[in-house]
Amino acid sequence: MDRRRFLQAGSSAALLTAAGHAFAHVPAHNFEQYNFGPGPEVSDRLYQGPFSADAYPSWNVVMALTPSEDVVPNYGMGLITYVCDEMGPQLAPGRTLEQTLEDLVKIPMGSKLYLRVNWKDVQSRPGRLDLCEHWKITFALAKQYGKRIGLRVMLSNPDIPGYAAPDFVREKVPYVKLGEWQGRLREEPRYDDPAFQAAFEELIGLLSADYDGHPDVEYVDTCMYGFWGEGHTWPLEKNPFPDYATAESTFVRMFQRQNAHWRKTPLATNTQPDFSKVGNSELVDRTIRSHNWLRTDTIFIENEQIEALSNRPPWAGVSIEVGMSDGDPKSLHLDEGIPYTDNVVHHAQDAAANYFSLWNWHRIRADRVMAYYEKYPKAIDGLARCIGYRVRPSWIWTYHEQGEPGLILGLVNDGIAGVPGVLRIAVTTPEGRVLSSGSLDAGYPLPRKVRQAKLPLPKDVKWQGLRLKAEIEVKGQTHPVRWACAQKLNDDGSLTLRPTHGLNISDVTGV
């Protein structure tokens, strides 16, 4: 049974009644042209046109840059190596836990890491965190190898014996029997119970105190309802709540708490259709409006999720999680010579992913990931070279109007996704002194479109030899961006400005 397979829920109700009054919610809807409100605020917006010839008659193209073919390991994008999933770490034969995890961290295609643990793996008693060994090892290895971590703490996990929550929660919170699945009786907590809510608030507070804005954390999955915290208890049609209004209001409140605590690190909310009737569409809506991100754990099942991912606002990053083959012939599932995993990879590209999983579902090991990659590297390598945003200054013009010099940039995104935040640009001296800086509109430049921006320079400053650098700002935090151009860059990813040969007619004709 595919744990990610989900039945569609029929039609969504627009209004439900609770306590005698109407309780509105956001139903499933198309994302294309939907008004999610303004994107992240841009306080120092650069002028982005129009640049008419009568206003800038002295323009001159001085640089033209071409796309890089290398993997660009910027924040907000990349292939993610899973070090564990809901089954916990899987020891490789003859290897210790630390060696097993380090083998995974060293996988060359993966520029990021992912860690999924149960609540009881990070907290066993009230008032403090009690971090499991594989959590501590992963963070140590992330720092050692310079690979940031995406993470999830699960409130429910049907793949393990017992419960995901620690005993001190289980003892105080009632659990509701939902039915039998895969030979076992399944139960879910009354998430709305005051004891559960108080413990959850403490958990989020403890985690965010240590990891919000942590230099080694890339993003955090939103804690949602049900199995694996993904917003469902499929295939069981019940949920533990007395009515829809209670379910939705509970998870809206839990999302608000998470968003209030994770002020610096983006949350990634699953786009799971609302099969279990717990308010998932409302959570997704609030996620985007609060400038957080999305994720999905499927690529072939629900067209609702594909529409949402494909037509999301450009500032919303997306992580796509799908298990891959381990290279064994039985796991390839060839169709006209195309392995299933390659098919998945290309569809993740179609849905404009920022992140994609390197993950053997429930059988995670470095040798299994590499066994497939060594046989079929082309699709994975291709995705690594286009995933996320890949920004470069394609054109650089100079101008000098009324004694005021400056640059106009024609910025291009060769990736498949928008910038999941705000791109900040600066012109500096070689020593690092900022001469001019500002930001593009959130999400820009868009894939395969040119976004122009003006950077005025101080009087009598010559442009040649200056440096052009970029950063991405997400939830008030800035991260360096390496330009995705073929031309030589500085060690910090900035570009030293110099003339490009052949741009003037005299260079070509000799006149």
What does this entry look like structurally?
- This protein has 511 residues and is α/β, with parallel strands linked by helices.
- The chain has 2 domains: 60-69 and 389-509, Immunoglobulin-like, CATH 2.60.40; 78-384, TIM Barrel, CATH 3.20.20.
- Helices cover 23% and strands 24% of the residues.
- A hairpin with a 2-residue loop joins strand 1 (15-18) and strand 2.
- Helix 1 packs parallel to helix 2.
- The longest helix is centred in the middle third of the chain and has 18 residues, at 194-211.
- Mean pLDDT is 92; it is low at 1-23 and 505-511.
Task: Tell me the layout of helices and strands.
Elements: E1 15-18, E2 21-24, E3 60-64, E4 78-84, H1 97-105, E5 112-118, H2 133-145, E6 149-154, H3 167-170, E7 175-181, E8 184-189, H4 194-211, E9 217-221, H5 244-261, E10 267-270, H6 280-289, E11 293-296, H7 303-310, E12 318-320, H8 329-332, H9 340-350, E13 355-358, H10 366-375, H11 377-384, E14 391-401, E15 404-413, E16 422-428, E17 434-439, E18 450-456, E19 467-474, E20 477-481, E21 495-496, H12 505-509
Parallel strand pairs: 4-5, 4-13, 5-6, 6-9, 9-10, 10-11, 11-12, 12-13
Antiparallel strand pairs: 1-2, 3-14, 7-8, 14-15, 15-18, 16-17, 16-19, 19-20, 19-21
Helix pairs in contact: 1-2, 4-5, 5-6
Shape category:
globular
Describe the strand arrangement of the main beta sheet, using strand numbers.
Answer: 4-5-6-9-10-11-12-13
Query: What is the CATH architecture annotation of the largest domain?
Result: Alpha-Beta Barrel
Q: How many domain units?
A: 2
Portion in strands = 15-25%
Query: CATH-wise, what's the superfamily of the largest domain?
Result: Glycosidases
CATH class of the largest domain: Alpha Beta
CATH topology of the largest domain: TIM Barrel
Would you report the number of β strands? Answer: 21
Q: Supply Rg.
A: 25 Å
Helix content estimate: 10-25%
Number of helices: 12
**Sheet/helix structural class:** alpha/beta
User: Low-confidence stretches at least 5 residues in length (pLDDT < 50)?
Assistant: 1-23, 505-511
Distance between the termini: 72 Å
Q: Give the biggest sheet.
A: 8 strands, parallel, barrel
Mean pLDDT: 92
